[in-house]
Amino acid sequence: MISLIPEERLDAISLSAPELSRYARHLTIPDVGVDGQRRLKAARVLCIGAGGLGSPVALYLAAAGVGRLGLVDFDEVDFSNLQRQILHGTGDVGRAKLDSAADTLGEINPEVELDLYRERFTSETARDIAEPYDLIIDGTDNFQTRYLSNDLAVLTGKPNVYGSIFRFEGQVSVFSPKLGGPCYRCLFPEPPAPGMVPSCAEGGVIGVLPGIVGCLQANEAIKLILGLGEPLVGRLVHFDALRFRFREFQLRRDPQCPVCGENPTVTDLIDYEEFCGVGRGEESQTESNMIPEITVHDLRTRMDDEGDSFVLVDVREPSEHAICRFPDAVLIPLGELADRLHELDRDIDIVVHCKAGGRSAKAIELLMENGFDKVCHVAGGINAWSREVDPSVPLY
Length: 396
Known about the structure:
There is one protein chain. By secondary structure, the protein is α/β, with parallel strands linked by helices. The chain folds into 2 domains: 7-275, Rossmann fold (3-Layer(aba) Sandwich), CATH 3.40.50.720; 282-388, 3-Layer(aba) Sandwich (Oxidized Rhodanese, domain 1). It is 36% helix and 16% strand. Strand 4 (135-138), helix 8 (143-156) and strand 5 form a beta-alpha-beta unit. The protein is elongated. The chain starts with 6 loop residues before the first helix and ends in an 8-residue tail after the last helix. 40% of the residues are buried.
C-alpha cells in the first residue's frame, strides 16, 4: 500500500509520556505499536461536515490520536440535529457546529490540532482547504459536495473515504484511483435530477445509523493511515440496519469515467451547483427557472383574506405532515402528484408548499408542464413559516 505519511514528517514525530498512557490500548496491538501511533499523530485528515457522519468520524479520529484534523461546516446546531449528531448537545443549539465540535473534541483529546473552516466547501475554496491533508472523508448529504469531494480527491491523488445514509441503510467505500480503485463517478457519472432522490432531511434517518456508518469510515481512515488490512478500495459495503445485513459489492474503474478515465474531460473543479442542477440556495434556483413564488408573509395575508379563494397543497411525505401542517392543506406527496393531477381544479389558484421550498418548486414545474397556470409555491416552505410567522410550528 502507498504510504500516506511522508517519511520526513514521520521522522519528526515522537510520543510524550501522557500520550503513551492515553494510547496504551493501541500500543499493545502488535500491528500498531509505537510506530503506528506515530503515524496516526503525523496524519492530517480532512472531514467535510460536522453532522451525522462527521460526528462519529471526528470523535473517533480525535480519540485515536490523529494529529491534525480539519473540519468543514458552515451550519449551526438545530434541535433536529441532536437525534444523531453526537458532537453537539442541547446547550449548543444555535451555536456554530464548529464551535460546538471544537469544545467536544478538545475534551476528548486536547493533543489533536483542529483546523476549523466555517465556510461552504465549493470549487473556489476546496483546493486551498484540502491541500495540507493526506486524505478526505466525505460526511456530507448533498450531491454537489459529494461530486466535488470526489473530483478533488482524484485530481490531488488523495483517498476519499465515502459514506452515505438514508433511513435504515448506509454505504461505505474508499474511492481512490491512485490506490488502484474506482472513483465515485465511475459508478455515477452524472447526478440524479434535483428532487428525484430525497435527502435525509426529507426522507429521515434512524439516529444510530450515521454512528455505525461514520465509525466504519473512521476505521477505513485509520487503516489507510497505518497501512494495515484491506481497505475498501474497489469495494462498497451496504448496511441494512433493519435486517442487520452487510453486503459487499465489487467495483471497477470505468475507462470512460469523465474524471479518472483514460481520456478525462473533467481536469479541474467545476461549478457543482450547476452540474447537479441546483442554485446556490433554493431562492436562486426558483428565480433562475422563473417559478412563481410567494413569501410566508404573503401566504399569511392570503389566509387572513376571507375573499381570497385558493387551495393549499402540501407535497411533503405523510411522516412529515404528521410533525406539523397547515390545517386546510391538501396532502399530495411530490412522488404522487403526477398521478393525482385530476384531483386539482385548474380554475382555482393553487399554492404549493413543502418543508423548505425545493420540492414545491419541482411541483410547480410539473403543474405548469401540465397546463396549470394559476400556481405558485411558498418560498422557504413550512420551516420559513415557523421561523418568520408562527414559532409554535415545529422546525424539523
